[in-house]
Design a protein that fits this description.
By secondary structure, this protein is an all-alpha fold. It has 10 helices and no strands.
Length: 206
């Protein structure tokens, strides 16, 4: 095996173990010592590939959002469908991704709901393409139909971004009382879908 291939495998092994650890425990309580002990990985090897816990966490978050963005990249606007049906497909696709990639669910929830303050810039960069994708899909959906006079696509997209800040704040409270993260995510996605539908039907031309 070539050295480059060996390095790639070693790095991926660390990343997979770290994703499980951060997903289960979140950034604050995750431990590199646990990653090492439970996966027979030396701490020296971790520091060979990653500067510290912060860098490893950001790489895990970036991997999560990159995979999610790629997965959702196949979503297309179908003008034969109603906006409601298209929204349902999009939110169902998001839920389907986490059903198939459960190790990423905790990473996603931690980065969105409990982001380490000192890593704000790195997290924003890690999720930039995902945020842009959400805005692009909403923009395409709005541009596929008629809006009321005086209402612009850009203003609706901006307003929904503010609504999402509120939804995420409320989601933090729901997550504490939920039976499982999966249940909490389903409820959150359903609420986002419902509120976005209300927003759209409040601005679409009758």
């Amino acid at each position: 095996m070539k050295r480059e291939e060996k390095n790639a495998l070693s790095r991926q092994r660390i990343l997979s173990a770290a994703i499980r650890e951060f997903s289960e425990r979140g950034y604050d309580t995750a431990s590199l010592n646990t990653v090492c002990a439970e996966n027979n990985i030396s701490k020296g090897i971790i520091y060979h590939y990653f500067k510290d816990k912060d860098e490893l966490y950001l790489v895990c978050v970036a991997d999560c959002f990159d995979k999610l963005t790629t997965y959702l990249g196949t979503f297309t606007i179908n003008q034969m469908e109603s906006p409601e049906a298209q929204l349902r497909r999009y939110f169902d696709a998001r839920l389907h991704f986490f059903a198939e990639n459960q190790d990423y669910l905790g990473i996603f929830l931690n980065a969105v709901l409990y982001p380490p303050v000192h890593l704000a810039a790195g997290l924003a960069q890690a999720r930039k393409e995902f945020d842009n994708q959400n805005a692009s899909i909403l923009t395409a959906l709005l541009e596929s139909t008629s809006l009321r006079e005086g209402v612009s696509v850009s203003s609706i997209v901006e307003d929904f971004g503010m609504y999402m800040d509120y939804f995420n704040s409320r989601f933090r409270m729901v997550l504490v009382a939920a039976d499982s993260p999966e249940q909490a995510l389903r409820e959150h996605e359903e609420r986002c879908h419902r509120q976005l539908a209300i927003l759209l039907y409040g601005v679409l031309e009758k």
